[in-house]
Amino acid sequence: MPVLTTHRLGEPCWVDFMSNDVAASRDFYTALFGWEPRVSDDEQYGGYITFHKDGHNVAGLGGAMGGSDAPDAWMTYLLVEDSEATEASVVAAGGQVFAPTMTVGDQGRLAVVADPGGAVIGLWQAAEHRGYELAEEAGSVVWHELNARDFDAQLGFYTDTFGWQPAVLSDTEDFRYVTFGPSPDSPVGGVYDAAAVLPAGMPSSWLVYFGVDDVDASAARVIELGGAVVREPWDSEFGRFCQVTDPTGGFFVLSSVMAD
């Protein structure tokens, strides 16, 4: 895949992992995906780590905020033109602001919000940092998925607030799913009606898929590195997948990618 230099407004542009054990998370993901960790200036950026593959940004890692009881988790960020204005739009559309807009050095501005179904999502107003530079290949993000408890309300929220133009993949009682992206032929993510499968009390959430050459071998490697397999590898018309967690409980999906 070519190196990405721009992202479309309203769509995913970055992912990072907030960990209560940064060293353990760094070691796990570098061993699993072959990423190179680069530590930022500790005073200005709090020791934030940017993972690189073949010299290009692919993801980030930071320490969980002190006193936070939130579980370790991956977060997807949507690219916005004006973070503070988008905050206001989020609230007007029934969402919440968890962390108001803050300036991150010369890299950009970020905020953390939640949609009406409680799914947490980041906002990124880019400056020097434009987002991940590789996608849809081994060792990079290949998909973003919202597991929605309130499918209609949440889909309407993203459509109204971020300008999505969703395409229906399936609309049956057993499986409701839409994709979003520049066109139905090139989607970058999806929204799944998960109301019937989410455990009681579990809010909606965003899920990140990472590409690998061999799902089964990568799942075995996850276990070797102290993680766990939540759902054994399975095949679908879209590829082979496996749901896993890292050693601190961070949930993500391994996804097969086509070899070049």
From TrEMBL:
Residues 11-126, 140-257 form the VOC domain. It holds the Pfam family Glyoxalase. InterPro entries: Anthracycline_SecMetBiosynth, Glyas_Bleomycin-R_OHBP_Dase, Glyas_Fos-R_dOase_dom, VOC_core. Gene3D superfamilies: 2,3-Dihydroxybiphenyl 1,2-Dioxygenase, domain 1. This is VOC family protein.
